[in-house]
Amino acid sequence: MRSADARVAYRIVGSGMPLVIVSGLGDSMKDWKESIIRMLAKRFCVILPDNRGIGLTGMGSVSPQKMTICRYAEDVHAVVEGEGFSEIFLLGHSMGGMIAQEFTLRYPGMVKKLMLFATDYGPESSYRARLMNRCVHPLQALCVIAPWHTKGFRAGACAIAAWEGSKDRLGEIGCPTFLLFGDADFLMHPDVAYEMQRMIPHAELRMISGGTHRMHDLYPAEFARTVLAFFDS
């Protein structure tokens, strides 16, 4: 699907209400376990776009250093609009959760339900999240000297570092919102989840005991059931 200067690759599985899943830093559509996709596709039309420079999506004319969270959100919108959907369910993991926040704030009428999974709301969030963001700048330097890192990974790191966050806008989210976090996530401290729950009107929070940043990889069936329970209710 064409999005401004780039062609965005994505996968569609199943039928029903569209459920768009936005991946985190460095992940492609292939990094989501097939068992999760198949479970969700029994109820929804699951759409998994590849972020710029990752998987089958190119960088277009944007350099990695100039990539932004907002541009990622516009890429997702191009896919949704191109498929002819006016309403979607939206799930974002980690950096994908940041993209999902921007999408929802830009196109509030399109998002019927929102799930934010192991993410944060920008540089003003709690200490652990700020620590993660501070680490992005050394990570960018590492990407320059480490050729095994893709342009897409570098682009995501730059986008996270440049993102001003959503702290002053989270109160504008009006759709039902579900926050899924783990208390053993070393990137997104549980405090971030509680802060976001206070800022998003009527947000529901589920904190998984022992849950890590990639707990969907460790417990795919439980993760899929949690997603189904929220979006199918």
Automatic annotation (TrEMBL):
InterPro entries: AB_hydrolase_1 (IPR000073), AB_hydrolase_fold (IPR029058), AB_hydrolase_sf (IPR050266). It comes from the Archaea. Keywords: Hydrolase. The keyword Hydrolase applies. SUPFAM superfamilies: alpha/beta-Hydrolases (SSF53474). Residues 18-119 form the AB hydrolase-1 domain. GO terms for molecular function: hydrolase activity. Coiled coil: none annotated. PANTHER family: HYDROLASE, PUTATIVE (AFU_ORTHOLOGUE AFUA_2G14860)-RELATED, MONOACYLGLYCEROL LIPASE. This is Alpha/beta hydrolase. The lineage of its organism: Archaea, Methanobacteriati, Methanobacteriota, Stenosarchaea group, Methanomicrobia.
